[in-house]
Amino acid sequence: TTLSADMTAQRTLFVCLVYLPSSPHGCTEGSCYPATGNLLIGRAVNLTATSTCGLNGPEQYCIVSHLQLDKCFECDSRRPYHSLRHRNSHRIENVIYLSDRSGELTWWQSSSGKEDVSLRLNLEAEFHFTHLIMKFKTFRPAAMIIERSADFGRTWRPYRYFASNCTRTFPGVPAKGLHHINDVICEERYSDIEPSTNGEVIFKVLDPSIPVRDPYSLEIQELLRITNLRINFTKLNTLGDDLLDRRTDVLQKYYYAIYELVVRGSCFCYGHASECAPVPGVSTRESGMIHGRCVCKHNTEGLNCERCKDFHKDLPWRPAEAENPHTCKECNCNGHSNQCHFDMAVYLATGNVSGGVCDNCLHNTVGRNCEMCQPFYYQDPNRDVRDPQVCLLCDCDPVGSLDGGVCDSHTDLDMGMIAGQCRCKANVKGIRCDDCKVGYYGLSQNDPQGCQPCNCDPRGIIRMGDPCDQISGDCSCKRYVSGRYCDQCLPEYWGLSNDQFGCRPCECDFGGALNNRCMMESGQCDCRRHLIGRQCSEVQPGYFCAPLDYYKYEAEDASGHSPSDPALPGKVRPQAADDCIQHLSNQARRHRRHRRVSSSQQYHTALRRIRQLQQTPDVTTLNREHSPGLVVTWTGPGFARVKDGAGLVFTIDNIPHAMEYHIMLRYEPESTEDWEAVVSITSVNLPSSLRCGNLLPTEQLYTETLLHRNRYIQMSRPFCFEPNNRYVVAIRFQRHGVAHRHLTAFILIDSLILIPKYTELPGFQGSGLQAEQNREDMVRYMCLDFFMITPMPLLAEMCSKLICSISSIIHDGALACQCDPQGSLSSECNRVGGQCRCKPNVMGRRCDQCAPGTYGFGVSGCTACNCHPDGSSSHQCDPLTGQCSCRQGAIGRQCSDCQPGQWGFPSCKRCQCNGHADLCAPQTGECRAGRDNAAGHQCERCKNGFYGNPVLGSGEHCQPCQCPGNPGSNHFNGHSCHSDYSANLIICNCNQGYTGSRCDQCAPGYYGNPEQPGGQCLPCQCNNNIDPNDPESCDRRTGQCLRCLYHTHGQFCSECEPGYHGDAIAQECRRCTCVTAGTLQSACHDGLCHCDPESGACPCRENVRGRVCDQCAPNHWNFGEERGCEPCDCDPQNSLGTHCNMFTGQCHCRPGFGGKTCTECEQFYWGDPQVACRECNCHVHGSNLRVCDRTTGQCDCQEGKAGQRCDECARGFTGAFPNCVRCHQCFQLWDDIICQLKRDLDHIHFTAQRILESGVMPGVGDARIRELEEKLKQVKDLIGSGRNESIHHLIGQAIDDLRYPNNTFGYTILYLLLLFTLFTETSDTSSDSNRRTDTERMIRVNNTCLLLPLLDQFEKVKKDYQKSLQAEEKCNASVSGPFSPVEQSNKTRRITEELLEATKDEFLTSVEANNQTLNELQQEALKLGETVQDLSQKVSRSLNPRMCEEFGYLE
């Protein structure tokens, strides 16, 4: 038949293509490929079979045939096949060609009955294997496997399984169709028992049904690459009789026999060779043979061009591509090397520009391109980088430079590099790095820093030059700084700092500190006891510094001695009073003889005065009071008053420090005469101290003149006193310049004072500057003079400091204040002197005694004596009792009272009491302890409760008042009475609460029964809430309150009346201020609401709060309603809180939300409030209002404006928004057509969706589909027969049948199927081109005219459907299956790890090449799409509407 003839022609053409190698592809612009051919040609010796009939001797075999008479033959393969001599040899090499030279068919045949047979091709190199064709002489195998090896037979992997029943034969191998190009599946189409001969098996490595996105990917290359190919026949196809009978004659007809085996491929060159040469060691040179060694181009080399040539490795080796040969690039080593290698890391780091790394650089160069100088060399900036002399030796001191003398290899200003510049160690400087930096010393090669830091303390070094010696490291210190690192202060200095001298002097107080050394950090000196402060110049609280006159001995405390006492020094002068007495006696006798009585009496009087003076004590104590406004010029209580010639003896035993003391005597003369003092100082024990032990004599005598104009005298020379010794100072006082003692001559001695001679103390001794300065300061500030004057003026600050220093030395610290706790105000005293703060009338340094004129020392101080000047003989009183010394006729502690019965001191008079009292008040004369019921200042009236006239004298002149009972009884209700002589009645003066002439009634505001004995009137208990003058305010008998005031009520007016609240007892009842809108209606009447009588809280309605019910409870509103307030019910998500307006209920909404409870979108917002509210954002130039639809967000657009925001021109308008202009009138016509098409498309889309959901086409039944299929079969048969007239007629009839009313979609699908079938079956027909042209023209016209109304809609539906399918596949793949992202990720990770571990560099290279190829394929796809679109446009333009009319399809 014609069909079989066509198939024969096709097969003949295919065989020609198999035998002939393809022409090579040039390498002008991109990849090049060698010729493709049968790999078996020339490799007969490499082709083997595990079973061949007749190898060991002739074997019988039979065939299955009903047409041929001879069914059994002989096979003898001991010799190779020869067309004349050995025609029955069926070795494996017979499959290389289909027939011999004479056209006779040749074949390979296995031994009969043997099922497991393998054919194997061993190649000498790697080859590209594309497909395999086997033509069988007998039945095709019932099962077989095609396998490959890429490592010369060490490992094998299956390509494809073939079986008549895959599930039973190979149960573990998938039997479904291919999904991926590298799937290993089992196929059944080549394993059927038919045909019995000339059956073929065709296997293509790259199945045409699976698109290959990247033919250069590792996956595809690995799939094509082989070194060995093996075909395993595992099961014979039989007629089934072998299962029942295994005899030889049965099995002889079952064997494998192949006419022809074609293994199509080419040498494997990765696109870098257009021809191949024989592999070394292979001498076969057969015509059409495909050799295995690539003749490489593009600077590649290797058996398969699998690597770049030496020194051409600047880019990664990649397989060539269609438009990019990926030529290997020569390395750039700047003429310093001819070797290099490729480094993928470098390639990636350069942005895929260059990856070549030069090896074995010469001329002292290094680097990827030999572009840098090696360590210890630098690039000469004046030479080219390719110059052999470009790198010069560094000139750096290896001791002070880094890395043993490495310098900057080149100049790079951005990196701070200068060619040849030495890199010094951290602490080294200099061009050659041979000098220590400033602040460092000791250049050493072993020191990683080069030099050691001086470590000089910057505060202690001189700022000029290097801080330390660069050899020794000794620092240069400031004046008062010491130490190797200048970090210590000199002794007696502290406070290392940045000032000029580095440290400051300690300046320790020479007395307060033990020495002049201090702590270097704080400057704290070493203080004596109870001294504080950095310089030890401050006194600890509760302690003081002794003043210079601290050792003061009051004359009042010294023992007085008479002039004749031998304890006093000096001679006793005669008393002038003896001569005076003798003279007065003589004169008195003389006057008696002459009877001059008056003169004699005068002399006797004078004589008595003299004798009185003689009896006056020689030494008395004279205490002086401290009078306000008078200056106190003495110390202590007063003075010792010493008579002329008498003296005082002082005992001294409290010397603190062995040294010389100046002796000073304070005094006050009573006359203008000068006095003198004879002083004797004696030590009881021999001096034993170093200071006083060698001084002689131990007793000294002084005679000093006491001038009357002065108040003190300092002895002419000091005396050495020492501790632990007792001294007696005896002083005789006598008038100066006279020979006799006078009885009336006295002098007042205040005290004896020892003043230390400070010039012999440390700090004042020697010729040092500080000692001289201290001595000068004592004199300049007259510090000693302050203690000569009484009272002592305020000390200068300098004097206080110096005196504290002196006191600290003498007492080895400060002295305790020891203030008397009873007499002082605090335990602290003055810093200098130690004077405590005394209470009133208390004196003494320690406040431990009463001042003169006071008494009663205690916790309150002392009390003034206040002795009456007229009644007492002295201002002093007993210090304990305070009793003054009274004159005659005066009595009392102060001597200020008259004798009993008298008054009016000091002019005392008798008391005047009308005979009713004996005593009266001493000051006023008011009578006391009166009798006879009399009263008054002079008992001139009766007592209260009595009446009469007591002036009449002693006697019962006062009678009791009857009110109504007698005074003193339990029925007396008045306090007095008087006589009403006109009425002859006694009128009572009633007590409070009583009234009536006899006080027998209760007054208003009181109640009781006063008319009965014992009865009384009590105040009405109305809490002051009644009018006390109102007789009706309360009941006079029971006391019940009747007329309550101030809005109170109750039995005791103790409660606020209804409608008022507050404190009734405090008269603070206020009206209730309840808000009627919030108060219970039952609590309000006539505009007045009741409230709590105490707190004023009103009874509120439900959910109303506040004391006066004036606000809703939190989160409530609608104030004023009868039911109270209602809940706000604010939306918890859309509101800012749960509260709302009390009157409107409006909640506080978040931005974008509105409504009373925030459950709606705010004005100018839209959306679902439960999800989100979005702003309308209506365009101001496109919308009528700013608001939009609350549900859709659509703004109200102006005419000609459209869009949700009215921000674009509407349909039918054109222009740039907002300038929208109405389109031409023809637009409306086109718009109607487009709208109709859109509706039709929507209907088609809906119908397609129904088909996809139900699988049934609406309006088309099974019978109709079978009828259409029958018609379609007839069309295919006619096309196969080639009868054009019948074809034309049947196509027209078929098209009419296919045109179903309202079934355009179904027609379109079936019609497209018809066209596809026609073009597929006629694609290889080469005869009758005119008839084919007519047919194609008719088909094209019919196709165009039929599909013209629906072409656009169908394409859209098809695109939507394809998108849906792709989305479904992506969705399914993303959640399950072996190709889901999770599984693919795991698989990719495993493959990646294995590839990276095995061939890291090759993997990275291939990835880069594949990426490049993918990009180019994408570009090709874009170009192809543009080409298809251009062709479509050309076809559309070429259509002629008349053609449509001609065939009746225009409508």
From TrEMBL:
> Is the Signal keyword given for this protein?
yes
Looking at the record, the residues that make up the Laminin EGF-like domain are 267-330, 331-393, 394-453, 454-505, 817-864, 865-910, 911-960, 961-1019, 1020-1071, 1072-1127, 1128-1175, 1176-1222
Indicate the segments annotated as coiled coil, or none if absent: 1382-1434
Q: Which PROSITE patterns match?
A: EGF_1, EGF_LAM_1, EGF_LAM_2, LAMININ_IVB, LAMININ_NTER
Which residue intervals define the domain Laminin N-terminal in the entry?
28-266
Subcellular locations according to the entry: Secreted, Extracellular space, Extracellular matrix, Basement membrane
Q: What is its main location?
A: secreted
Q: Which residues form the Laminin IV type B domain?
A: 545-811
Which terms are listed as keywords in the entry? Basement membrane, Cell adhesion, Coiled coil, Disulfide bond, Extracellular matrix, Glycoprotein, Laminin EGF-like domain, Phosphoprotein, Repeat, Secreted, Signal
Q: Which GO terms describe its cellular component?
A: laminin complex
Q: Which GO terms describe its biological process?
A: animal organ morphogenesis; axon guidance; basement membrane assembly; cell migration; substrate adhesion-dependent cell spreading; tissue development
Q: List the disulfide bonds.
A: 296-305, 361-370, 424-433, 477-486, 489-503, 817-829, 819-836, 838-847, 865-877, 867-884, 886-895, 990-999, 1044-1053, 1100-1109, 1128-1140, 1130-1147, 1149-1158, 1176-1188, 1178-1195, 1197-1206
Classification via InterPro entries: EGF, Laminin/Netrin_ECM, Laminin_IV_B, Laminin_N, LE_dom, LMN_ATRN_NET-like_EGF
* Name under which the protein is recorded: Laminin, beta 2-like
